[in-house]
């Protein structure tokens, strides 16, 4: 009490001013504590960030790989028939259409014949699809960042042309990374009992091609593949994402505002994307497949000038392959196998997109391709 009594006069005023000063110091202390807590949180997140980023990447790659494997296995018989139609000898045709071709394979080779080469196809398409989806996400984010920097609009969104560019980048990266497997998969799919080489599997085919034809043979047809993948994969992503974006914003056909797009709607978007992409890029796929067969004796042949004999196909390059194909078999040969390919691509692309997004939602990956 003695000390309290001493406080008086002007000191009393000082005593009365103490509470607001105390409150300010308290607020400063709380603010400092919050800042320290936030810094500690950020530091903690910085330690966890690399592991979290790796986990996110692994989830994305896993979702893309599974999506590719499921979609291709679902249409494996049509995939094999498409390749057989593309490379069959025009002098001795065995496959004249989708139904007849599937029936012929079933009668001559059974159920296993319908899925011949699918194991190798999945071994190729799983990493290809994983890299493709992940590359698209990264490319689209980089392109969007650059686009916003150039325009100065932080709210800018990807346009269909920018999505096409991101899809083209993803397709080129994925195709180049897995092209040797695609090359030997084509040969495994085409080979029969009369084929010059009997490949026992993907690794045996790879080693045989390396030994007999050299390492460059593993990239036969790579250039037309690069050109073909730009419109194909690019249009797949661009059409799919743009259609979804339009449906979300405009809500036509009775779609309810605020609701997510249904699986059926997403499948329809994927089907439209696959139809557009494969129609534009199909001739390049035919040329790529034919160039892959060069060097494999008697695997493919052309009718010579006398109209009766045949000679092995030899191409000096992509342009020469186009010229020879059109000259010897007509322009329609560039679209041979388009019908079974259309029946295959439409559900395949749709299943791949929907499976990928469903798995990413299931795995709680923060970013989706739509983001």
TrEMBL record:
SUPFAM superfamilies linked to this entry: Mitochondrial carrier
Q: Which domain of life is it from?
A: Eukaryota
| Keyword Repeat attributed | yes
Which one GO biological process term can you cite for this protein?
transmembrane transport
Amino-acid biosynthesis keyword on record: no
Which InterPro entries does the entry mention?
MCP, MCP_dom_sf, MCP_transmembrane
* Compartments in which it is found: Mitochondrion inner membrane
How is this protein positioned relative to the membrane?
Multi-pass membrane protein
Q: Where are the Solcar repeats?
A: 55-142, 158-246, 261-362
Could you give one GO CC term from the UniProt record? Answer: mitochondrial inner membrane
Q: Which family does it belong to?
A: Belongs to the mitochondrial carrier (TC 2.A.29) family.
Q: What is this protein called?
A: Mitochondrial carrier protein
Starting at the broadest rank, the lineage of the source organism is: Eukaryota, Viridiplantae, Streptophyta, Embryophyta, Tracheophyta
